[in-house]
What we know:
The chain has about 260 residues and is an alpha+beta fold. The protein is built from six helices and nine strands; from the N terminus they run ββααβββαβαβααββ.
Amino acid sequence: MKDIQKQPDYRSIPINKVGIKNLRYPIRVFDRKSGFQNTVASISMYVDLPGRCKGTHMSRFVEMLHLFHMEVSLKKLSVVLEQMKEHLNAAFAHIEVTFPYFIEKKAPVSNSPGLMDYTCKIIGSSCPNGKIDIVSEVVVPVSSVCPCSKEISEAGAHNQRGEVKLSTRFKKFIWIEDMIELVERSASCEVYSVLKRVDEKYVTEKGFNNPKFVEDIVRDIAKKLKKDDNVTWFSVSAENFESIHNHSAYAYIASEYK
Protein backbone atom coordinates (compact mmCIF):
# COMPACT_ATOMS: atom_id res chain seq x y z
CA MET A 1 0.00 0.00 0.00
CA LYS A 2 1.12 3.52 -0.75
CA ASP A 3 2.75 5.24 2.23
CA ILE A 4 1.49 8.83 2.11
CA GLN A 5 3.58 9.92 5.10
CA LYS A 6 6.78 9.15 3.17
CA GLN A 7 5.85 11.40 0.27
CA PRO A 8 7.89 14.62 -0.10
CA ASP A 9 6.45 17.94 1.05
CA TYR A 10 7.30 20.84 -1.22
CA ARG A 11 6.58 23.57 1.33
CA SER A 12 9.89 22.71 3.04
CA ILE A 13 8.74 23.91 6.47
CA PRO A 14 10.07 21.81 9.39
CA ILE A 15 7.79 20.95 12.32
CA ASN A 16 9.19 21.12 15.85
CA LYS A 17 6.82 18.61 17.41
CA VAL A 18 4.41 16.14 15.82
CA GLY A 19 2.89 13.06 17.41
CA ILE A 20 0.11 11.92 19.71
CA LYS A 21 -1.39 13.73 22.69
CA ASN A 22 -3.28 12.62 25.80
CA LEU A 23 -3.40 8.86 25.25
CA ARG A 24 -4.63 7.11 28.40
CA TYR A 25 -2.46 4.15 29.31
CA PRO A 26 -2.01 1.94 32.42
CA ILE A 27 1.39 2.29 34.10
CA ARG A 28 3.30 1.33 37.24
CA VAL A 29 5.41 3.88 39.09
CA PHE A 30 7.84 3.51 41.96
CA ASP A 31 6.18 3.74 45.38
CA ARG A 32 8.45 4.35 48.39
CA LYS A 33 6.21 2.35 50.73
CA SER A 34 4.94 -0.49 48.53
CA GLY A 35 7.56 -0.78 45.80
CA PHE A 36 5.18 -0.05 42.92
CA GLN A 37 1.83 1.67 42.45
CA ASN A 38 -0.59 1.05 39.59
CA THR A 39 -2.20 4.10 38.03
CA VAL A 40 -3.46 5.43 34.68
CA ALA A 41 -1.42 8.01 32.79
CA SER A 42 -2.14 10.52 30.07
CA ILE A 43 0.78 10.20 27.65
CA SER A 44 1.93 12.55 24.89
CA MET A 45 4.76 11.65 22.49
CA TYR A 46 6.38 13.84 19.85
CA VAL A 47 9.26 13.92 17.39
CA ASP A 48 10.53 16.59 15.03
CA LEU A 49 9.70 16.40 11.31
CA PRO A 50 12.06 17.71 8.58
CA GLY A 51 10.63 20.13 6.04
CA ARG A 52 11.08 17.63 3.24
CA CYS A 53 8.76 15.03 4.86
CA LYS A 54 4.98 15.09 4.54
CA GLY A 55 4.10 13.33 7.80
CA THR A 56 5.06 10.95 10.58
CA HIS A 57 3.66 7.50 11.41
CA MET A 58 1.28 8.09 14.32
CA SER A 59 0.60 4.39 14.97
CA ARG A 60 4.28 3.77 15.77
CA PHE A 61 4.04 5.98 18.85
CA VAL A 62 1.37 3.73 20.34
CA GLU A 63 3.31 0.59 19.39
CA MET A 64 6.39 1.87 21.22
CA LEU A 65 4.45 2.32 24.45
CA HIS A 66 4.69 -1.45 24.87
CA LEU A 67 8.39 -0.91 25.57
CA PHE A 68 7.28 0.45 28.95
CA HIS A 69 5.83 -2.93 29.96
CA MET A 70 3.60 -0.63 32.09
CA GLU A 71 6.60 0.46 34.19
CA VAL A 72 7.66 4.11 34.15
CA SER A 73 11.29 4.57 35.15
CA LEU A 74 14.22 6.68 34.03
CA LYS A 75 15.72 3.68 32.24
CA LYS A 76 12.50 2.84 30.42
CA LEU A 77 11.95 6.45 29.38
CA SER A 78 15.44 6.62 27.92
CA VAL A 79 14.84 3.45 25.89
CA VAL A 80 11.50 4.69 24.55
CA LEU A 81 12.96 8.06 23.55
CA GLU A 82 15.81 6.46 21.60
CA GLN A 83 13.42 4.02 19.93
CA MET A 84 11.18 6.91 18.88
CA LYS A 85 14.11 8.61 17.17
CA GLU A 86 15.24 5.41 15.46
CA HIS A 87 11.86 4.17 14.19
CA LEU A 88 10.63 7.60 13.12
CA ASN A 89 13.93 8.85 11.66
CA ALA A 90 13.89 11.85 13.98
CA ALA A 91 16.62 13.99 15.53
CA PHE A 92 14.56 14.91 18.62
CA ALA A 93 12.08 12.93 20.71
CA HIS A 94 9.83 14.07 23.54
CA ILE A 95 7.50 12.29 25.95
CA GLU A 96 5.21 13.54 28.71
CA VAL A 97 3.62 11.15 31.22
CA THR A 98 1.00 12.68 33.54
CA PHE A 99 -0.66 10.57 36.23
CA PRO A 100 -2.42 10.69 39.62
CA TYR A 101 -0.34 9.37 42.49
CA PHE A 102 -2.01 8.26 45.73
CA ILE A 103 -0.59 8.38 49.24
CA GLU A 104 -2.31 7.20 52.39
CA LYS A 105 -2.19 10.07 54.83
CA LYS A 106 -3.36 10.02 58.44
CA ALA A 107 -5.07 12.96 60.11
CA PRO A 108 -2.68 14.81 62.46
CA VAL A 109 -4.47 14.13 65.77
CA SER A 110 -7.07 11.36 65.32
CA ASN A 111 -4.83 9.38 62.93
CA SER A 112 -7.87 8.71 60.73
CA PRO A 113 -6.55 7.35 57.40
CA GLY A 114 -7.44 8.77 54.02
CA LEU A 115 -6.07 8.81 50.49
CA MET A 116 -4.56 11.97 49.03
CA ASP A 117 -4.06 12.20 45.28
CA TYR A 118 -1.30 14.28 43.71
CA THR A 119 -0.87 15.10 40.03
CA CYS A 120 2.59 14.03 38.85
CA LYS A 121 4.35 14.47 35.54
CA ILE A 122 7.54 13.14 34.01
CA ILE A 123 8.89 14.95 30.95
CA GLY A 124 11.62 13.35 28.88
CA SER A 125 13.55 14.57 25.84
CA SER A 126 16.34 13.21 23.67
CA CYS A 127 18.59 15.43 21.55
CA PRO A 128 20.48 14.54 18.34
CA ASN A 129 23.64 13.82 20.36
CA GLY A 130 21.77 11.24 22.44
CA LYS A 131 21.64 13.32 25.63
CA ILE A 132 18.58 12.48 27.72
CA ASP A 133 16.87 15.20 29.74
CA ILE A 134 14.35 14.20 32.44
CA VAL A 135 12.18 16.55 34.49
CA SER A 136 10.02 15.29 37.38
CA GLU A 137 7.04 17.40 38.44
CA VAL A 138 4.47 17.26 41.27
CA VAL A 139 1.43 19.41 41.97
CA VAL A 140 0.68 19.58 45.69
CA PRO A 141 -2.42 21.11 47.33
CA VAL A 142 -1.57 23.26 50.36
CA SER A 143 -3.22 25.60 52.85
CA SER A 144 -1.98 29.12 53.57
CA VAL A 145 -2.89 31.91 55.98
CA CYS A 146 -2.28 35.52 54.93
CA PRO A 147 0.33 37.23 57.18
CA CYS A 148 -1.04 40.68 56.32
CA SER A 149 -4.61 39.72 57.22
CA LYS A 150 -3.44 38.28 60.53
CA GLU A 151 -1.46 41.42 61.34
CA ILE A 152 -4.20 43.96 60.66
CA SER A 153 -7.28 42.07 61.83
CA GLU A 154 -8.59 42.20 65.37
CA ALA A 155 -9.86 38.63 65.07
CA GLY A 156 -8.86 35.87 62.68
CA ALA A 157 -7.17 35.98 59.29
CA HIS A 158 -8.22 34.87 55.83
CA ASN A 159 -6.91 31.53 54.64
CA GLN A 160 -7.27 29.49 51.48
CA ARG A 161 -6.22 26.40 49.63
CA GLY A 162 -3.56 26.67 47.00
CA GLU A 163 -1.37 24.61 44.67
CA VAL A 164 2.37 24.34 44.54
CA LYS A 165 4.01 23.00 41.38
CA LEU A 166 7.56 21.73 41.83
CA SER A 167 9.74 20.59 38.93
CA THR A 168 13.26 19.19 39.31
CA ARG A 169 16.20 17.87 37.34
CA PHE A 170 18.49 15.62 39.35
CA LYS A 171 21.59 13.43 39.31
CA LYS A 172 20.03 10.48 41.12
CA PHE A 173 16.45 9.30 41.45
CA ILE A 174 14.17 11.39 43.70
CA TRP A 175 11.14 9.82 45.34
CA ILE A 176 7.80 11.47 44.55
CA GLU A 177 7.04 11.34 48.26
CA ASP A 178 10.17 13.38 49.08
CA MET A 179 9.12 16.14 46.67
CA ILE A 180 5.61 16.22 48.12
CA GLU A 181 6.83 16.31 51.72
CA LEU A 182 9.22 19.17 50.94
CA VAL A 183 6.32 21.23 49.58
CA GLU A 184 3.94 20.40 52.42
CA ARG A 185 6.48 21.38 55.07
CA SER A 186 6.83 24.79 53.41
CA ALA A 187 3.13 25.73 53.52
CA SER A 188 1.13 27.16 56.41
CA CYS A 189 -0.41 23.72 56.82
CA GLU A 190 -0.90 20.50 54.89
CA VAL A 191 -4.17 19.43 53.26
CA TYR A 192 -5.83 16.18 54.35
CA SER A 193 -8.65 14.07 52.91
CA VAL A 194 -10.10 13.06 56.31
CA LEU A 195 -10.34 15.41 59.31
CA LYS A 196 -12.20 14.91 62.59
CA ARG A 197 -13.05 17.89 64.83
CA VAL A 198 -9.81 17.53 66.80
CA ASP A 199 -7.93 17.55 63.49
CA GLU A 200 -9.77 20.64 62.22
CA LYS A 201 -8.77 22.45 65.41
CA TYR A 202 -5.15 21.40 64.90
CA VAL A 203 -4.84 22.43 61.23
CA THR A 204 -6.67 25.73 61.81
CA GLU A 205 -4.40 26.70 64.68
CA LYS A 206 -1.25 25.45 62.95
CA GLY A 207 -2.00 27.54 59.87
CA PHE A 208 -2.85 30.61 61.96
CA ASN A 209 0.47 30.33 63.80
CA ASN A 210 2.40 29.79 60.55
CA PRO A 211 1.16 32.44 58.08
CA LYS A 212 2.73 32.39 54.61
CA PHE A 213 2.52 34.55 51.49
CA VAL A 214 3.02 32.75 48.16
CA GLU A 215 6.39 34.52 48.14
CA ASP A 216 7.29 32.83 51.44
CA ILE A 217 6.30 29.39 50.18
CA VAL A 218 8.38 29.45 46.98
CA ARG A 219 11.37 31.01 48.75
CA ASP A 220 11.33 28.42 51.54
CA ILE A 221 11.25 25.59 48.99
CA ALA A 222 13.96 27.20 46.85
CA LYS A 223 16.21 27.70 49.88
CA LYS A 224 16.09 23.98 50.69
CA LEU A 225 16.62 22.86 47.08
CA LYS A 226 19.62 25.16 46.61
CA LYS A 227 21.35 23.18 49.38
CA ASP A 228 20.60 19.81 47.75
CA ASP A 229 23.59 18.72 45.63
CA ASN A 230 21.46 16.05 43.93
CA VAL A 231 19.17 18.68 42.36
CA THR A 232 20.74 20.25 39.26
CA TRP A 233 17.79 22.55 38.42
CA PHE A 234 14.35 23.33 39.77
CA SER A 235 11.33 25.54 39.27
CA VAL A 236 8.63 26.12 41.86
CA SER A 237 5.37 28.05 41.67
CA ALA A 238 2.66 28.70 44.24
CA GLU A 239 -0.88 29.79 43.46
CA ASN A 240 -3.35 30.69 46.20
CA PHE A 241 -7.03 30.55 45.26
CA GLU A 242 -7.84 33.62 47.34
CA SER A 243 -10.89 33.41 49.60
CA ILE A 244 -11.60 37.17 49.74
CA HIS A 245 -10.25 38.36 46.36
CA ASN A 246 -11.50 37.91 42.81
CA HIS A 247 -8.08 36.69 41.71
CA SER A 248 -5.33 34.24 42.65
CA ALA A 249 -2.01 35.18 44.23
CA TYR A 250 1.00 33.72 42.38
CA ALA A 251 4.78 33.44 42.72
CA TYR A 252 7.42 31.58 40.68
CA ILE A 253 11.13 30.85 41.02
CA ALA A 254 13.39 29.04 38.55
CA SER A 255 17.00 28.21 39.37
CA GLU A 256 20.06 28.27 37.19
CA TYR A 257 21.66 24.96 36.18
CA LYS A 258 24.29 23.65 38.55
